[in-house]
Write a structure and sequence with these properties.
Layout: E1 3-11, E2 14-23, E3 28-34, H1 39-52, E4 56-66, E5 77-79, H2 81-98, H3 105-109, E6 115-117, H4 124-175, H5 177-193, H6 200-213, H7 217-235, H8 241-261, H9 265-285
Parallel strand pairs: 3-4
Antiparallel strand pairs: 1-2, 2-4, 5-6
Helix pairs in contact: 1-4, 4-7, 4-9, 5-6, 7-8, 8-9
């Protein structure tokens, strides 16, 4: 399922901004982007995303800033004033000897040791701000996904209702198959033998054999069970995408078997219509967590 969320949290002098984007995917594919974070914080972020999202391609962008949000240094970086002054004196003295203009600020900042990194980016303030912003972003994302999920649930319920109706039609048609087979076999025997009479016992035996080969009672029972389970999953409150994906495969397998055993055009037509509805269900299931 798709969605987007952003969270911004300030803790002490740390400002954390987290963006979370999710698009459809069969499994959970998580990517962390933006500021480098310590392993402990990365593990905590991964755990929270996995707890909130079962499957989808998820991109989490993290930005940490310390001090003024507009012009402050990035979190974990600072200017060493003493090193900057020493670098300026040395560069200015060299410029004087070479009779060239003195150093500008960019050149001074580029000198080794002037801008340093420390381990403060993984302190409690940074971690707390990042996780708080992540929670806020996941909350926004969840709101968008809930709205999309409601629309998908309505669509899936309509398609599953179509399949239930078609399954009932097939069951009614299947009940009349033995009688149709008996009539067909009797007509065929009359045409081939040119005999007025037919041994009822022999005819009954042949009809029984043909009816057994075309019997779809077991397939209809399993199909009804699969459809009931699918409808229950759609109506439930838990993640159901993977289980629905499995049920769609099983429903398709039963329809294929029914179609292969079909001896009437009416049942074949109903199976074709059911497969068309099932394909629409299959497409939507790929969007469900």
């Amino acid at each position: 399922m798709t969605g987007y969320g952003r969270g911004v949290v300030e803790r002490g002098d740390v400002r954390a901004t987290v963006d979370v984007r999710a698009v459809n995917h069969r499994f959970l594919d998580l990517k962390l982007r933006g500021a480098a974070v310590p392993p402990a914080l990365e593990d905590a972020i991964t755990a929270r995303v996995r707890a909130a999202i079962e499957r989808g391609s998820v991109a989490v962008s993290i930005h940490l800033a310390r001090g003024n949000a507009q012009g402050g240094m990035p979190a974990g970086m600072r200017i060493d004033g003493d090193a900057a002054e020493a670098a300026h004196r040395q560069l200015a003295a060299l410029a004087a000897r070479l009779a060239i203009p003195g150093p500008d600020l960019a050149l001074i900042l580029a000198q080794p040791g002037v801008i340093t990194t420390d381990d403060r980016s993984d302190d409690s303030a940074s971690s707390g701000a990042a996780l708080g912003a992540l929670d806020a972003a996941l909350g926004q994302l969840d709101g968008m996904r809930l709205a999309e999920g409601a629309a998908l649930a309505a669509e899936l319920c309509a398609r599953l209702d179509e399949l239930v109706t078609l399954r009932t039609q097939i069951a009614v048609l299947a009940a009349g198959v033995p009688q149709q087979l008996a009539r067909r076999l009797a007509d065929r025997v009359k045409r081939l033998s040119d005999e007025a009479g037919i041994d009822p016992a022999r005819l009954a035996q042949e009809v029984a054999l043909l009816a057994d080969r075309s019997d779809i009672t077991e397939e209809l029972v399993r199909l009804a069970s699969h459809l009931d389970q699918a409808r229950a999953l759609v109506a439930g409150a838990h993640a159901a995408g993977r289980r629905l994906d499995f049920l769609v495969q099983e429903i398709g397998r039963e329809l294929n078997t029914i179609g292969a055993k079909s001896t009437t055009s009416e049942i074949t037509t109903a199976v074709v219509a059911a497969k068309a509805s099932l394909e629409k269900v299959r497409e939507q299931v790929q969007n469900i967590e």
